[in-house]
Amino acid sequence: MQIESRTNLLFSFEKMALRDAVKSSAGARAFAEGLYELLYGRGSEERKFEEWCAVVSELPRRQTRVSTWPIVTVFGFLATPDRHIFLKPNVTKIAAREYGFEFEYESRPQWKTYASLLAFADRVRKDVRDLKPRDMIDIQSFIWVQGSDEYEE
What we know:
By secondary structure, this protein is an all-alpha fold. It has 2 domains: 2-65, no CATH class; 89-151, no CATH class. The chain has 8 helices and no strands. It has helices at 2-5, 12-21, 25-40, 45-57, 69-79, 89-99, 111-127, 136-147. Helix 3 packs antiparallel against helix 4 (45-57) and helix 6 (89-99) packs across helix 8 (136-147).
């Protein structure tokens, strides 16, 4: 939580929902064990990701839901950016459309959308290989610039 708090990847309402979710020892344990399994567990990436989504969706909540794409993807991205990518839905949908990639998006975090995002990232990595992207941080940054209105043409 301390590492993520030093980033601007999550919106403040997502940060608050997450803090509330892990405030109890049961929530903190479920979160920590689920994240460990995502990062280091055995089995397919699909199984691990689906189980992680289930853990996050079952965390205690007060007002705002915890199971959002940014929350589900930020910790894998920060811990293992060689394997995991971060999803900000609106920016990514715009970037994929502008890029000509058919991004299979569903609002509920699940493997099909994440697999589509990984395929998009792989295509971008291949297309920009001359720029020597090191990991998904570079790829996600490229996607952000493509989809964000901060960088108008």
